[in-house]
Amino acid sequence: MVALIIAVAVAAAVYVPAEASAKQYVVGDERGWTNNFDYATWAEGKTFFVGDSLVFNYPAGKHNVFKVNGTDFQDCAKPLAAAPPLTSGSDEIPLKTAGKKWYICGVSGHCASGQKLVITVSEGSAPPAGYSSSGVAMVNIGFAALVLVGTLGMLFF
Fold it and tell me: For this protein, what is any one GO molecular function term (predicted)?
């Protein structure tokens, strides 16, 4: 019985919520995926995590989305041996791995006019809104201390 109570106290002391929600980012926000837009500025200040997704909204038939490598991104070149472009007008791309990700519009002249996006995806996931790991840790340590003191009190008194 004592071992069980101590195990619960230890578990409570080290518990930190792992709950986080994946975010869905609409590329370009209300402007969507279009030319003559600064996607570097749009991405600035955003932190992308594995599990998040990008949504490219645009009029179908007017634009497309190619996932490319860094060289093709710099050259605004459609990849030679790659999957066909996304063309639905509402393309969702899950961010499955960490690292740099590059996207361009393959319609002639669009990438050169700024219709390209580079992001860096981080491991892990975003904490829930309003999450403070130090606050949670203090609450958990306080809770564990309370459980431990209560347990010791039951054993010795």
Answer: electron transfer activity
